[in-house]
Amino acid sequence: MVNSILSLAALALATAPSLVAAAPTPEPWQVSDFPVVDAWLQGKCPGKYQPCTQETVKIRKDFDSMAPEERKAYTDAVKCIASKPSQLDQTLYPAATNRYMDYAVTHVNRTSQVHLSGFFLTWHRYYLHLFEEDLKNQCGYTGAFPYWNWPATADNLHGSAVFDGSAYSMSGDGDYVDTGPVVLAPGFALPHGSGGGCVNSGPFAGWQTTMADIPITVLLTGSPLPPTAYDLNQTCLTRDLNTFVAQTWCNYTALELALEANDQAAFDAQINGILGGSALGLHSGAHFIIGSPGSSIFVSVQDPIWWPLHTFLDNVYTSWQTRHPDVANATYGTETAVNAPPSPNVTLDTIEPDWGYFSRDQIAVGELISTTSGPFCYKYDVSL
């Protein structure tokens, strides 16, 4: 697997400082963080997208920094999506009990292509965007799309606004059930967290999941999904908040190591870990902070915390791009998870897998590289 990096054209602007007054400092959204990406878009699809402007840019926010009523408006909108009927064929997808679970089913359908592959970061960036647009178009939500700041909450999960279990949270921990350690591989186990049972607090108390776990070996071997993947298996949402995982793999040191990675291969290793090793990465660690089903790579979307978790991942990716503008448009990986079965390397010109009925547009990877060009117009309240 090789990095695909578009050469940055040299740009020169000649002015006469003694004759020309200094221009006012532009607002952040008026300057592209990734001019090399804009140049690629200009050449490949001129006029396809509207420019991102001060009037249209959205600012994504830390969930903990949002006012209580703003947080509740967001969770109300998520529940609103879950109140809408499924648009999928119920004979094929019995687990798609509503529009929210349509997203979960779509994620399962694409997991083997868009994880541990060259599509991972950009496919999920657009998937987040589609959900954000759905919150607005289906449920009238106009607030900020929030993120869960993993390192900021690592030392006090239960006391954070995200997980304090109040009406203004993303709901709290599950009831305590002693299920023993979480075994990930021979010789690699995590201590049990503080929950494990049903979530009975906050806005998602009573939330129902509909799909059983799918073994990660399906992903790692390139095997087809089991025939029972979409069977209806309705149960309560469970969580097992794990402070050990949060403090070990999702701390500020781990974040800085990811942000300082020199290329996307090293960045990928920092966020996803090394398969077969005895350590988690920053992003994979965040999943195991939550516990099942949030720690299951196929069906994790069933827990609504999935969205703020991945919005923070996108913030990490965006911040890494900003720190490394010379490789901001790099790609790394093939078209299949861990290259199983073997597939071509992903490049800027490679067409993304679709997002189910939410978007079947033919979109190249390069169109999804920048948050302020292509179909996007957003930034984060804080650059990491």
So how many helices?
11
What is the distance, rounded to the nearest whole angstrom, between the alpha carbons of the first and last residues? Answer: 28 Å
CATH classification class: Mainly Alpha
Strand order of the largest sheet: 2-1-9
Return the average pLDDT rounded to an integer: 91
Provide the helix percentage: 25-40%
Number of structural domains? 1
Class by helix and strand content? mainly alpha
Low-pLDDT segments: 1-31
The CATH topology comes to di-copper center containing domain from catechol oxidase
Number of strands: 9
Signal peptide: 1-22
Keywords: Metal-binding, Oxidoreductase, Signal
Domain Tyrosinase copper-binding: 115-132
Protein name: Tyrosinase copper-binding domain-containing protein
Overview of this protein structure:
32% of the residues lie in helices and 7% in strands. The protein is mainly alpha-helical and 384 residues long. The protein has one domain: di-copper center containing domain from catechol oxidase (Orthogonal Bundle), CATH 1.10.1280.10. It has a 3-stranded parallel beta sheet. β4 and β5 form a beta hairpin. α2 crosses α4, α7 runs antiparallel to α10 and α8 packs antiparallel against α9. The radius of gyration is 21 Å and the shape is globular.
